[in-house]
Amino acid sequence: MSAISAAETGSFHGFDLIHHSVQRDAAGGRALARSRRLMKRNDMTRLSDCWRDIPDVRVLTRRDLMSTAAATGLAFVMNDVHAQTAKGRWHREADLPWAVQEVYGTLASGRAVIVGGMVVDGDRSRAISRVGIFDPVTRAWTEGEELPSPRHHPAVAFVNGRLYAIGGARHGLAGEPDGDHWRQQTDVFVLENGSWHRGPSLPAAQSEGVVVAHDGKIHLMTGRTALSPMSTRWSEQRDTDFHQVLDTADGRWTFAAPAPVPRNSAGGGVIDGLFYVVGGRTMQGGNMARLDRYDPGADRWETLRPMPKAAGGLAVAVLGSHLHAFGGEELETEGPDGVIAQAWRYSPATDRWEALPDMPTPRHGLAAVAIDNRILLIGGGALPATGRTTRVTESFVPT
Questions:
Q1: CA–CA distance from 330 to each of 15, 375, 385 (Å)?
Q2: Kind and range of the H or E element at 149?
Q3: pLDDT tens across 26-81, in order?
Q4: Which distant-in-sequence residues (6+ apart) come within 8 Å of 394 by Cβ?
Q5: Which residues contact 160 (CB under 8 A, 6 or more apart)?
Q6: Contact 202, 253 (CB under 8 A)
Q7: Is 148 exposed, middle or buried (0-12, 13-18, 19+ CB in 10 A)?
Q8: Which of 23, 145, 227, 245 is such that its CA lies 20 to 30 A from the CA of 207?
Q9: Using one digit for the tens of pLDDT, what is the confidence trace for 110-120?
Q10: Taking a C-beta distance cutoff of 8 angstroms, is the pair 394, 379 a contact?
Q11: Under 8 Å CB-to-CB from 227, ≥6 apart: which residues?
């Protein structure tokens, strides 16, 4: 009889799991099939009970366990990470003047800024060109200079007094078919001295990626790219491992080491000069939990401990020496249950995740901006996909 590897040592909610070699008997086969379904749903409690029914125990090494989790997106955590809970307080801030999702933001001259995004008019979604500015002193929103052209999912970065809106996609304009809703763009807009001008275009179309600014350069990592220059639909895109780098001093784009795996709708940030990319999803495989770190000095990636819950469309920000991840969505689940409420904090010093208090308003496709001692969570959808676009702004303050 053939043996099937199922899982390995670790700790889910205090229950020690052991990797099994399963013979294809009726009981073991049923338990293994059920465990695979629960792994996809990240249902750790029921998974623990299910694995009790699988016979013929075989313990694997820690390295086997880490590689399995990274490859499958299984959000296990060893040494009872789930028992660790960080504290913090949620606050309601002033609502945005307009509803928006699929939006990104950054800190610019001490204020939080969001650029473009997506709104829904009836049954049709469309990109917008509006720019929102949150002042931490007045705790109020004002509207900035609009983009020259509407964009959803533009990457946003602030470097040396200039605000960059990179790539993204647009919807069909007046008179164009409704299906023209995901036309990738390679142009770059730069806001300087109160007005937008064109910057150096992307070498390759890339949206729904992770953007970080460091040492005068802007790194755009992962996301989706068009299957062809004529692609106009969501389904006519593919996940990418692209890693494009703009040197803002000379205006030149180059390619750095590609990300370890293609994915879209991840989040990330910079801690001590190293870049972190977490979560996301693939168009065929669903949400991911993996965490990867990039060293720009060595041009090298490594894989770290995965997030406790797989999430795509999440928002991520760095505050202090920690990476914070919020929300996201599960596209296969309809209704409010398809939007993720959980929040997490990661410490590079210990390679551990901690649970944060759940979001008061679970959302996906939202922006996260760290400002002073708090993280702003801005806009987003309260239902999966394009459902229930919000104006909500909330802040999280670690304690």
A1: 26, 23, 9
A2: none
A3: 444 555 555 555 554 554 444 444 444 444 333 344 444 444 455 444 444 443 34
A4: 90, 91, 92, 93, 359, 360, 361, 376, 377
A5: 216, 248
A6: yes
A7: middle
A8: 145
A9: 999 999 999 98
A10: no
A11: 236, 237, 238
- Which domains are assigned to the chain? 3-83 (no CATH), 88-398 (2.120.10.80)
Q: What is the pLDDT of residues 157-187, one digit of tens each?
A: 999 999 999 999 987 655 555 556 788 999 9
Q: Would you tell me how many other CB atoms lie within 10 Å of the CB of residue 175?
A: 5
Neighbouring-strand partners of residue 139? none
pTM confidence score: 0.81
Measured CA to CA in angstroms, residue 130 lies from 116, 119, 144, 321 at distances of: 5, 11, 7, 32
- Report, in angstroms and rounded to the nearest whole number, the Rg of the chain calculated over CA atoms: 21
DSSP state of 328: -
Residue 197 half-sphere exposure, CB side, CA atoms within 13 Å? 6
Amino acid at 50: C
Structure tokens at 232: 């106009």
Helix axes 44-51, 26-41, angle to 10 degrees: 170
> Considering the chain, what percentage of its residues have pLDDT values greater than 70?
77
The one-letter code for the residue type at 304 is L
Structure-derived torsion over alpha carbons of residues 20, 23, 24, 30, reported in degrees to the nearest 10: -40
Give the bridge partners for 113, in sequence order. Answer: 106, 133
Instruction: Compute how many other C-beta atoms are within 10 angstroms of the C-beta atom of residue 26.
Output: 7
- CA dist., res. 224 & res. 282, Å (int): 9
Instruction: Give me 276's structure tokens.
Output: 């972190």
User: Tokens 């080491």 map to which residue?
Assistant: 257
Q: For Cα atoms 262, 264, 269, give the angle at the middle one, nearest 5 degrees.
A: 100
